Amino acid sequence: MNILVLLRMVPDVVEELEIAPGGKALDADLLRMMLSESDGHALEEALLLKERYGGVVTVLALDAPEVDDALFTALAKGADRAVKISDAGENPTTLEAAYTFAGWIAGQPDLAYADVILTGVQAIDDLDGLLAPLVAHQMRLPYLGIVTRLAVDVPGRVATAIKEYPGGVRGEFDVDLPAVFGIQAAEKPPRYVPVAKVRAAMKSRQIESVPAPTLAEAGPSLVNVVAMEKPQPAEWAAMLEGSPEQVSGKVCEILAGTGLL
Amino acid sequence: MPDPAASVYLGVLGYAWLWAMAMVSFYLFGTRVWRYAGVLRGARPEKRWDRLPERFRRFAAQVLGQQRLREEPLIGLAHLVIFWAFVVYAAGFFWNLVRGLLPFLPVPYADDVRWMALALAGAGFIGLAALAVAAVRRYAFPPPRLEQSPDAAVILALIGIVLVSWLTGWFARPRLPALAIAMWWLHMATVLGFLAYLPYSKHLHLLASPFGVFFSALQPGGMPAPSEGASRRQEFTWRQLFSGLACAECGRCDRACPAFQSGASLSPKMLMHQVKELVRAPSDGAFQPEGIWACTTCYACMSRCPVFNEHLPLVIELRRRLVSQGEIDARLQEALTNLGRYGNSFGQSPRNRAKWTQGLDFHIKDARKEPVEFLWFVGDYASYDPRLADATRAAARVFQAAGLDFGILYDGEQNAGNDVRRAGEEGLFEVLAEKNRKTLAKAKFSAIVTTDPHSYHVLKHEYPAVNGGFRVWHAAELLDTLLRDGKLSLQQTPPGTATYHDPCYLGRYNGVYAQPRRILGELGVGFQEMPRNREHAWCCGAGGGKIWMEDLPPASGPRERPAESRLREAASLAGVDTLVVACPKDLVMFQDAAKTTGLADRIAVKDLMEVTEQAIAPAREKTHA
Amino acid sequence: MSGNVWVFAEQWRGRISEITYEALALGKELAGALQVPLEAILLGHNVLPLAGTLGKADTVLAGEHPALAELVPGLYAEALAALVEERAPCAVLIPLTNISLGMGTLLAARLHLPSVNFCQDVRAAAAGIEARCVLYGGKIESRVTAAGTPAIFGIWSGARSPEAGRSDRAPSVEEVRVTVPDDTRVRLKRYIEPEAGDVDITRQEVLVAVGRGIQSPENLALAEDLARSLGGAVCASRPVIDQGWLPLSRQVGKSGLTVKPKLYVALGISGAPEHVEGMRDSSLIVAVNSDPRAPIFGVAHYGIVGDVLEVLPALTAAIEARKEAHSHA
Q1: Considering Cα of B543, then B546, then B548, then B551, what sign does the dihedral take?
Q2: A2-211: which CATH topology?
């Protein structure tokens, strides 16, 4: 079974985000990038599928700061092949990324038939769309998002997917393969891979660096950023100061005032 | 008494019998020991031939002098006596055996040589008395965790028979020669039997432990050389496996273990037992002990073990293997991932590392940019945990008041890696150590001072040399010197009566006991020792990465976390109202314990630097975080 | 600009989703500013009865088709695409929930139209329609314009209050013909209900919510104590549920339940949008977090910066003391 995982790097929001001069983008100097959280789950789900059904896991990413680290980590975790697409433009939007990914996949004879394409359900910078449905649309494949579990009938070319609904309800779907899935969470939390294994992967494994495909459908972005700001919340909580005992007393007063106590 | 070997029994000459018995005994003994030796040879190598004079000195003190055993005075003395009695009897036995096997030698039996016989008699009587003490202790007043196996009973019996048979024979010689001969044979047969039995019993420690002590680890720390971890027999080093053979199952390690005593499924003694089983196993096996994540690496087991067994390296090797397989709990995984990404276990931006300095009214030098005399390595917890900011600032103010030329690394500091190593993530340790090493190499300083014993230990002992080597101080060592040099002017005596908790990585690992006590003395603080002090200090339970792990309920029995037990111990001292600590993790662990035990009103937990600050400054209005 | 403002009425299992009403409120404002009608698009099978709840819209375009019985994003996107091409609205507002996630993107891709995600506001501006989008987990806002009409705006929870999108008015209902491609590659087989918990948190007047700040399952007992003192129940954000410390029936948020208690005490919850979505309409929100800049304080009425494990028992003690004192009065 051929499993393809699409990985994207997003800004690490643990760091303070600052707006660049010009006010339309983030200040890249202060930015640290990390693998999008649900992409990490997508990778884990892919590795679990490989363990269960056998096959080859390929991870695909656009060139970005710190992407090598993510790719080597994926290899150390058990991915078979890591491919990095360079010259895909600086800070591609989700739509541009989708075109690039789909374009490259379509040009690969062995991957054109990737049975299962996984990526995270969404990323924190998905301004102009979600990656999974965009890639599915480009490749004319079926799509299902917010998936938390996958089982595959390999010969029958059908996957059973569990999708999350509100209120804790789950839906069980049958999806004809090949298909694209937006993974919300893997069945198990993403595995830990020791630093030694990642370093060993850096020495002994290769990341294939490939040029971006020329895109027939490239064009100016459909969504234009007018301005980027840090939100000023309309309201901020009234902060209660003091020792735990003191604030507790104040809370009691408040509750008494509203008749809850 | 006629020559036993020359007499005839059942138509066969005595020495033929002796030869037969000796060959069977030596065969059984030899093949078993050879098997063990083969297992050890097949294990990973480990160099333990260095620093020979020190090794001989340790051998003399610990094997000949039984020093560690004598920490428990009564049984220590008894065991010393039994040991030496055994030495005398072993000498006598081999003398007799050689003479019996080779009757043409123009040598009398040992028993026929006056001084030897007197020695044997004297040793026999005192030995029996000591044996009686040991037996009464084992059966009437056994200390907890003493392994009550049939094996132990057999050994007591055999030793008793060995001594009694010789003494009876000695008495019988002038009057009842037949009895004397019978006792002679009983004695020889028992010793030969004991010899054959030895490699199958825990009494193998008799043979193994002198070697174990000789080849014991000379540097503090219990840290095995870098490896990928171990779970199969041949993946451990010979010295790690050897501990199983040298273990006498006395239970001192279990009694000292805070994890075990708080109900975790970790038993250092069982760990040793399982290693022994691993060595004895007919074919290669894998090792799956329970509870190795419960170990806080407090070093109590290794510091109590009379045969210098090495529990910690086993735990760490096992952890390394589990880490390499990704089999770690979710919270530890999160901490390690954060450490790899942000250089701290809190998952906070490196840029926030020095935020605690904002509460100070002076600027601390940036040791990356200007030369300083003392580079203060602050540590993760002291930097990031909001509950510790006050204590960290107190230390800064004390340094400032003492006129110390110091600086910090600001966001250049990474976790020193002590607990990362002990959690088994060797690769991550290397990354952190490398980053720190690079930062230190570019800085200009004369010495490092740290308020964190974990950082202290790893920087002092496990970091590659930087800038030609530098001295690492713990703040208590430095403060002790500063006080004695009169660098701090003391304004008032801090209130209250205190007791002091020796941090594991400062005390047991590095022997720093006197300085904090001297400091409290200089400050004029009223002081009382807790019963478990210095080497016997009771770990707070945070070390070895445990503070990053899930707090699991005990495997059995009611829960009392190590920190709670320790806090109760402090509170049990009438008149003591303050528990003074010298480690940031101790501070949070004991403050939490004060809440969960409900003793927060009875006893306050303070850092040594906070107490010192009280002595040098007028009372400050504390702001709440 | 010609063309109407459309709001996709998201229905699932016989109910219209709450965010649909937020989108209707937003759509009404936009339509008013552009001086065009507001139309609600209701697709499905046997969903006509739901049209009456969409009175905020001038007209409900109802598309009935058996193939639309379950919301499969691809099928719905195709049906919507046909309608959009036919009727040329000027903007399409689609609620972003688990139910239809992905549909908006597919619709936009299908018609080569701009898709704008995470919108909390959509306004008429000089250059056309401008949206305000929250990105990076709520830490950054982008104001954007779209190059193409209609743009497909994905409306993120919190844009407006659902109340503003409800109306007693009966809208006019127009039944429209929908074409659905014969594509059965994605098939819903069944729903899996969560195990009925002992407690229905949506019916509680007081909820004590725990997040990662609770640190370990054993500290849940402290939260239970507080809940008991206040006569309420314990609920949790996603990380606590994922760890298995509480059952699914206690999850509040996008993938969990939406609650509106009189009192919501948020302990050690950072305030990620996915969680806030599920509790923002609580009457009184008190939050405790060690990070003074945690987003939860932007939603809470009262905030306490501190260690949850210190404040929590103190709160319980204070409440018990007060109850004790008043029971003797």
Answers
A1: negative
A2: Rossmann fold (3.40.50)
